[in-house]
């Protein structure tokens, strides 16, 4: 079953400690339990200028998830928020989408 929600104030404050005021507004950030390629998290811009962080199993408790690639709690979340930051600060979202699709799925 697909689950989704907006980012919490606590999660947003954690990300702001890393990115400052350069992130999309809190009310434009959504989280889901979706993934691609066997459990890989990914972040995607929406046409309404919101951003969706698809976090697989980290969706349930993103501040507590660790694994071989992300050994520190919250590291996966910050990695995906870096993509949200990129989406927020890049002026050509369509080009960014093409680059993401090409690099993640076609190679």
Q: How large a portion of the residues is in β-strands, by DSSP E?
A: 5-15%
General form: globular
| Intertermini distance | 29 Å
Order of helices and strands: EHEEEHH
- Helical content stands at 25-40%
Low-pLDDT sequence parts:
none
Q: Let me know the number of strands.
A: 4
Number of domains: 1
Sheet with most strands: strand arrangement: 1-2-4-3
The tally of helices reads 3
Largest sheet: 4 strands, mixed
Radius of gyration: 13 Å
Average per-residue pLDDT, rounded, comes to 86
Structure class: alpha+beta
How would you characterize this protein structure?
The chain is α+β, with helices and mostly antiparallel strands and 107 residues long. The protein has one domain. Helices cover 37% and strands 14% of the residues. The protein has 3 helices and 4 strands, in the order βαβββαα. It has helices spanning 9-19, 75-89, 93-106; strands at 4-6, 29-32, 42-45, 51-54. A 4-stranded mixed beta sheet has the order 1-2-4-3, covered by helices on one side. The chain starts with a strand and ends with a helix.
Task: Give structural attributes.
four-stranded mixed β-sheet, alpha+beta, single chain
List the SSEs and their pairings.
Elements: E1 4-6, H1 9-19, E2 29-32, E3 42-45, E4 51-54, H2 75-89, H3 93-106
Parallel strand pairs: 2-4
Antiparallel strand pairs: 1-2, 3-4
């Amino acid at each position: 079953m697909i689950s989704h929600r907006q980012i919490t104030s606590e999660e947003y404050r954690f990300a702001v400690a890393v990115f400052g005021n350069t992130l999309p507004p809190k009310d434009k950030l959504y989280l889901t339990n979706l993934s691609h390629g066997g459990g890989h998290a990914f972040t995607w811009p929406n046409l309404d200028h919101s951003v969706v962080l698809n976090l697989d199993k980290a969706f349930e408790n993103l501040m507590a998830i660790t694994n071989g690639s992300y050994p520190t709690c919250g590291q996966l979340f910050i990695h995906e928020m870096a993509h949200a930051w990129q989406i927020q600060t890049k002026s050509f979202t369509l080009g960014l989408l093409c680059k993401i699709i090409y690099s993640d799925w076609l190679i």
